[in-house]
Amino acid sequence: MRTPPDKGANMIRRQPDFPVEQTAAVATFLREPRGRARRLLTANRKWLNALERRRNSRLAEPALQRHAARLHFPQAQNLLELLGDDPRPRLLTSYHFGDYIYGANLLGATVNTRARAIYLSQAPGSAAYFANMKLAFGETAMGPESRMSAQETSIAGLAPLLRREGIQIITFCDLGEQFGGRTEVDFLFRKAWFSRGPALLGLTNRIPLLPVVNWFDGSREQVVLGAQIEPERFGGETLAQATGRITAELVRFFEPFFRLNPEQWRYLGALPLYFFQDGAAGALQSKEKTHASTRQDPATARSSHR
Description:
- The chain is of the alpha/beta class.
- It has helices at residues 20-30, 34-56, 61-69, 76-85, 100-111, 127-137, 197-205, 239-260, 279-295; strands at 71-72, 90-94, 116-121, 147-149, 167-172, 182-187, 190-195, 209-216, 221-225.
- The longest helix is centred in the N-terminal third of the chain and has 23 residues, at 34-56.
């Protein structure tokens, strides 16, 4: 008699559950029950896995164009008018939220019809990534020449580029200390620490910042623009005070989207790290890296690429 086949043999191996400490910490900062936090972390893992497949796996042109068509940028014309009326260099300041990969590329492709977009990224794109973007966005897609390394480029090193009219730099506001350090802001009714790099870059080079967020609203992916922030110091503000104020404005723009859909933030699993300034954050980050290496969850390490 033949042994019945193992029904689980061909099933995808279930990823390990989230550590109790991580779930408890995320629940605390979200002010949610642990069960709800665990479900959000699970949804976040699924969301990020889908993003990674669309980024680093070569996809067919019809599938890519269908996905690009689902991206909605209702303020695209407003952006083009802004670029025409105000050709100053500026920072397009975003977060690793929603479909930030294709959303940022739609933003860059839109900019490239009127000016030039530069993507300040933590990691170089793969050949599959650039091939996908070319098929999705055509001739206006951002290629390798539009990419700069955030880790290899200092704030001072960007100054010559930012003197050129029409340059629009896409950067992220939720990175660690490696780009300009961090500053204290209000987030989720607590004191938190976010990157001050974008605000510092805008102030020291006297260029405006335009907040951007990508957000899946339940039916389609949206690219949403905020109000432009001018690189000004108010009254007797020091550079540090102005940097903190502008960083706080950027976080206030992001927070409502995060509160609606926390599972769409790449760094949900590392949320506790944003509430520690120095040593405690380092210790927690070490734990996160250990957990990430055992379960391969990109949301749990702030050193994840991009």
